[in-house]
């Protein structure tokens, strides 16, 4: 049972705290680079899901730099080339179609395939994926990616198929 | 008359009477028909065969067994049985297919002993004794035939008797229409494993017959092979089919008229298309490309000008990966030149140039300095060193400011063709040596399809291609049925053409002269090359590549004396090796010049 004065005081305190809270409140959506940094630490599937949250997240989730971080995080040999070869890798991958495409066409399916075969032996998905990432090399993925890019070149509209062995038959391009 | 039969057959043979009932349409007795549960398949009924719809699958199965039994009895030269069947001592009216097949099967299986007692029914007298002859007994008194009885049913009585005799429990089943009497009959067990063994034996016997020029026997065996092959499934059936076809070609066309005797489709474009599907459906070509590329990449380390000569350019699927790897190597990409060699195109289209354009586009996008040259040559032996050497306009003949270009020669499944003409391989290897390559990568099939007699070659090829087809099946099965669609089928056609060439062609036409790694090692040694061990990087990449393949479980990468082989389970199928020009030991002058 509070007196009127005490109620007013409480109300004021609450309002003050709310104001303070508002000043202190941080929305990640206000800081896009931070958002990109966070999203870049996800695995591929989660990142794709995150892209469905809202337009902002979708736009950020499509940045090739974000996918670059994802790719490097998920393959062996990605980090080591970051220093010197980082720039050239980036330009080559961009020329071939970008990291997002690289992940979608090569790395993602490859990780799934490896995790699937490892997961069949009873390990959990995360450890299996980690194990898979340990073995999958960036250079192999890039080789496959370049072959796919090559197949898409050229006048004839043949459906490039050299990566089908990684994916299910239905290819949603 | 039918009526009469029906009445007498009342109890046991009741259901036989069903069919005539059905034919006549609605009667009161259709009720009985319904009771007995026999609805005759209408389509067959129109042809005169009465088969119950519920029995259809069963009848079909038994017909297959019957065919197998007859064929296998032919194979075992069981003349007695055949003549027994042929002389048709017991005429069963085949319109009731189900029981007809049953009877013949049961006859084949267990020749029924003679009836102890004649059946009680009076009309049975006409059919006394006969129906149960011992196998060889022809007994023309076994008339039976059409005179004695009327249409449908001599048979019910005989069948009934047959059933009683051949398997005692069935006597009770005759009264029960529902249980197909066949269930109680002993069936011809078509052991598909046994049929498979017979198939292999037939194939080998046919090869032997061909070798001995016994064409008549070979002809008979080829037909047998075709029948036996149908009893198999999957890979074995397809392999047997291709080998049978190749044998048939060899038997019936000993002198193939000019050109590539085996293939109806000679066009290079068709061949390329098959090659592409083979590339996509199984990892062999990818393995070849990746391992060769790795060896070339390592050999090119530190060089600023490189030149690759590809003996079999086709669609150039090997080179995008190498371009990408060169673009990303530490130190940046070199200046890259590619010479592609391909066969002449009948329709004047310049496939080689198109491939060059595509590669140039790719190279430009990843900023690798790229030059391309295509050479059309009907055979590699037509090449001369001057064609392959650098012919820069600014370089002229002699002095170059830049460092000399480093050459790599790459041959994937091309060298074995040269063995068809004597001296061709030596000339080509001489040309290769003259270009002074830093590395020569050779990928060949790991099999001996070039030595010994026809029979030995045939046996080798049979094992090799069986394994290849198995691997295709394994890959397709693991990837899911959809994937196995056109790729797998066309890959099989691709392999089938090789089979045809190995088996049916001779002389200069037989271009698929595969040899084992050991044999190639010998040849390269004699030609003045020494082996370059393929590093562990290539091994790792190859293993990883296979892990990605859906059907990858069966494939094995192995390292053998510095060479890598890819095989299916225990059998290596292709081998990659790398070579360089051996420094001649004796002559110090040329040794220093070589350096």
UniProtKB/TrEMBL annotation, chain A:
One of its GO terms (cellular component) is SCF ubiquitin ligase complex. Pfam families: F-box-like (PF12937). InterPro entries: F-box-like_dom_sf, F-box_dom, SNE/GID2. It comes from the Eukaryota. Residues 1-18 have a biased composition (Acidic residues). GO terms for biological process: gibberellic acid mediated signaling pathway; regulation of gibberellic acid mediated signaling pathway. Residues 1-23 are annotated as: Disordered. Residues 33-72 form the F-box domain. This is (wild Malaysian banana) hypothetical protein. It comes from Musa acuminata subsp. malaccensis.
TrEMBL record, chain B:
Keywords: Gibberellin signaling pathway, Nucleus, Transcription, Transcription regulation. InterPro entries: DELLA_N_sf (IPR038088), TF_DELLA_N (IPR021914), TF_GRAS (IPR005202). GO terms for molecular function: DNA-binding transcription factor activity; sequence-specific DNA binding. It is found in: Nucleus. Residues 275-340 are annotated as: VHIID. It comes from Musa acuminata subsp. malaccensis. The DELLA motif is required for its GA-induced degradation. Residues 143-177 are annotated as: Disordered. The keyword Transcription regulation applies. Residues 504-580 are annotated as: SAW. Transcriptional regulator that acts as a repressor of the gibberellin (GA) signaling pathway. Probably acts by participating in large multiprotein complexes that repress transcription of GA-inducible genes. A motif (VHIID) lies at residues 306-310. A motif (LxCxE motif) lies at residues 204-208. The keyword Chloroplast does not apply. Residues 41-112 form the Transcriptional factor DELLA N-terminal domain. This is DELLA protein. Belongs to the GRAS family. DELLA subfamily. A motif (LXXLL motif) lies at residues 415-419. One of its GO terms (biological process) is regulation of DNA-templated transcription.
